[in-house]
Amino acid sequence: MLLTKIKASIIGRPLKTEQLQEEKLPVWKALPILSSDALSSVAYGTEQILGVLVVAGAFALWYSLPISLAIVGLLTLLIISYRLIIDEYPGGGGAYIVSMDNLGWFAGSVAGASLLVDYILTVAVSVTAGTAAITSAFPILHDHRVAIACGFVLLIMVLNLRGLQESGTIFSVPTYLFIISIVMLVIVGSFKILFVDGGGTPPPITSHFPEGLTWFLLLRAFSSGCSALTGIEAISNATPTFRAPERKNAGRTLVILGILLAVLFGGISLLAYLYHLTPVLEETLISQIAEETFGRTAPYFFIQATTALILILAANTSYSGFPLLASIMAKDKMMPRMFTARGDRLNYSNGIIVLSLAAILLIIAFHGHTERLIPLYAIGVFTSFTLAQSGMVQRLLKRKPQGWKGRLAISLTGAIVTFIVLLIFAVTKFTEGAWIIIVILPVFVYMFSRIYKHYNAVADELRIDISAEKPQIKKQMIVLPVGGINQVVRNTVSYARSLDVDVVALYIAFDEEDAKRMKGKWNEWCPDIRLVIMRSRYRSVTRPLLRFIDKLPKYVGDRQVTVLIPQFIPRRWWHSLLHNKTALVIRFILLARKDIIVSTVPFHLKK
Amino acid sequence: MLLTKIKASIIGRPLKTEQLQEEKLPVWKALPILSSDALSSVAYGTEQILGVLVVAGAFALWYSLPISLAIVGLLTLLIISYRLIIDEYPGGGGAYIVSMDNLGWFAGSVAGASLLVDYILTVAVSVTAGTAAITSAFPILHDHRVAIACGFVLLIMVLNLRGLQESGTIFSVPTYLFIISIVMLVIVGSFKILFVDGGGTPPPITSHFPEGLTWFLLLRAFSSGCSALTGIEAISNATPTFRAPERKNAGRTLVILGILLAVLFGGISLLAYLYHLTPVLEETLISQIAEETFGRTAPYFFIQATTALILILAANTSYSGFPLLASIMAKDKMMPRMFTARGDRLNYSNGIIVLSLAAILLIIAFHGHTERLIPLYAIGVFTSFTLAQSGMVQRLLKRKPQGWKGRLAISLTGAIVTFIVLLIFAVTKFTEGAWIIIVILPVFVYMFSRIYKHYNAVADELRIDISAEKPQIKKQMIVLPVGGINQVVRNTVSYARSLDVDVVALYIAFDEEDAKRMKGKWNEWCPDIRLVIMRSRYRSVTRPLLRFIDKLPKYVGDRQVTVLIPQFIPRRWWHSLLHNKTALVIRFILLARKDIIVSTVPFHLKK
């Protein structure tokens, strides 16, 4: 009862199943919940591009503008493609469902694996990046970064266990503040450059291709910048959590996200170019731009604070995506069934908890330096993009709905472009860690296939023909191990006698004298139940009991055996340390090894 | 079965109870097992005295000789007193049994607590000191000292789990090597001083009391030196593990230990004085003496190696003492009953494991620097010395056996002297950590009293009058939660029908349609068992089940309820992750909250 109360105080009172509808999200709440991951990547997208280009010298920096434009173009394509998916799949599900549905089991499990891995990486990476922002401001906290990051994960976990509605309210504030602060930065910065600085003096643009700048470097800069495109999948995956009309609201949210991303990312890239900024080790690009624009005044600190906050909250996107995807995959028998269970607050609590634990393990394993994982997770994202668009192509070709040709063109373009980007990623980032993903994905796919086979095998085994396979009656007998004669044994023997079944009591004696004494007492106390006495030379109770049960069929035929095991139920938890756990051990071994029934007869201690 | 095999390969094949006698120890094996703690303290006893005296200047060092003599005198008194205890208590048990027996429950539990704490401290301190000797030789290992020390504890644990006989053989070699090496050092060193160096030039002896040397300092030096006296208790505690005649063999071992201790300790102190040595930070006193005597040649390294080895093996003394004492106290209902269970190899395996875990926790908590704990554990030793001798005084006064007056004189002197030493300890070492022991002992004593009360209360509750309190017959009924109709349910329903008892099947429906469909199917499949359908609005199965059971008495009177719970038994361990643990949760809650019987009906999956 105490546990129930503690649980309620942390995650809130249980909700009824009918309350499910009320938990659904309006657009203004869905946007911050589902898009903080995508929006927060604005904080490092441009910086990743410049970080690659700067190797080729100052002249190369100009190429950040066309690259950013290409990325915004890719973004537009993705937004349009995903709107088609939302229309076709109002029941939710992005890459996993689309590819499972149209491309088959294998493509589906690859998409599922890459999405699940990505959700975990997103939590670890975002939370540690946010923690790094905080520990940079307060260096004294640096040594505690692992504890702080894990604390944040736990905090987000608890908020999510409380349910979508409330966490939506909590998470919407910082996301909107971040949007406001970056929009403000872009507007004031552009204004300052145009009217105050007189347009600045942009670096000279040469008509020649700068020396040192190779096509490989350009592609690498492009793929680095694509880390700003993670998190789009979340919305189409979560269509059913939207308030009705789900399809329309999800589509609208997707478009709003696309416009915001284009404005914020494009604006940051433009300002960085006009201010002639390059990435430095000690200061983030956003911080440099904000300092150029406002100096170290209140608006600067406001921008820094909202950036740090949204990085941590970006992890929350995964808390909408991972549990939902895991539950869908569990319904498809590819993940353990526990992921389908809705918790007290109607969310998929097991998914929330598993996601948190996996992220915490990653944070601890990388000593809180998960920034290195940033390049990795774009691979998973583009794998799922490609599979989703390919699935749509297949679907449109098969169904040919009204206006299918236009849609096919969009999806085909999407599939081809994202596949090319994926290849660019795999090649240019292979040594940076892309190979890890290439190792992990097959492991996941293999795991899914094993789980799938197991569930199908079990389903086959459990299937019953109602008209033919009726319950059967079998002759029974009870074996009752006794350790002496006392109130516990009386309680158990009373139960056995009440059942009107043959009963044999079994006593394990440690020496001859012990055996004789017990025989005498038993015959006086309960002569109508037969007592078998066995000798144990190894001080074990379990082994003689197993031996006895093995030999039973010889004497009693194929009766079904029930073993009665008395169990102390102490009043205080620490009392249970004072009583041997023999009952539990016997129960476990008997159930695992034999086809017998184990009945636990409790004896509740009063003191 | 695999676990059984792994266990057997680590700790050896199980032994029969009759083999207990064979495991008993001859003197030559008992001496190294039971005295490595006492002998190893020679390695730091003299150093502790000199470390205190050196504060008062070079003239004060002379006082190490009378102090060492006083300690040897105290040792003689203790050896004689403990021989009396062995004679009176051939059944084993030192301070705990003697004080329990003669001074009552409270004194007994104080003695027990101080001994248990001491055994744990001995393991932690000895192993880390030995590890320090190794890491001093190989500084590269210094950062891994915690892992190395824990590894040694685990190694000693496994050797002890294999049983006394074998560990006796393993541990006797280094102990004898240590004795040989120190005796050799004392003989060669004395010879060299007398005949080669011409007697050396001992520091001048002044007839005046040196300035700076206070009585407090002298007492402190004395009590520091008494750390060489720990470990004597072990022999009298372990009397029953000796080969017959136990009493005589134990007494003989005690005397041999006393002579060895006096020779080694006295010899080291004398050599240190004649060589004018004082403790330095980088080198132990033994190392300095050995270097003066042999130079850095083979004998020097032999002495260093055996010293390091015996320090680690000293921990082994506690592995004889702790499990035996814990088992005695458990029989007296002061410790959990599990400590009385003999393992496969006839030793008290739970005591061995708990001791190891406690020592490992201490090592980790102190980051492998448990040297600081050295001053602490002499307090526990002298507390138990005092209680043991006081108990003997009480016993002799009451029984007045032949020749009791002489024995009384010895025990009384022992009690008074050890009590004075205890007071000196408590005062001179209070700020060095003695206060910790003064806090811990009452906690242990309180714990013992709670355990004692609980076991007595349970015994009262279980007591039965064989002639009057017979097994009773009570009306029964079975509640059978079903989750649908399949082979598992068929298996469980078959069992229920075989028992000739009223059966009610219970189905938890999540909506109206679900309820209707189930009702129809059930009536077709098994119309003779009544199916009750309940609605759950909270997606919980447990709560409606509990509610149903609560309401039962209204309809069926005071029948005893048995709940049948089907349980999947998968063929591979990882399959169990794929099935919900609802059965386990329901079983746990029902047993803890209700007075009903829970029968687990296994369904063994074939695939």
Automatic annotation (TrEMBL), chains A, B:
Membrane topology qualifier: Multi-pass membrane protein
Transmembrane segments: 49-82, 103-134, 146-164, 176-195, 215-232, 253-275, 301-325, 346-368, 374-396, 408-427, 433-452
InterPro entries cross-referenced by the UniProt entry: AA/rel_permease1 (IPR002293), APC_K+_Transporter (IPR053153)
Highest taxon in the source lineage: Bacteria
This protein's name: Amino acid/polyamine/organocation transporter, APC superfamily
Transmembrane helix found in the keyword field: yes
Compartments (UniProt record): Membrane
Record bears the keyword Transmembrane helix: yes
MF terms (GO), sorted A to Z: transmembrane transporter activity
GO annotations of cellular component type: membrane
Keywords attached to this entry: Membrane, Transmembrane, Transmembrane helix
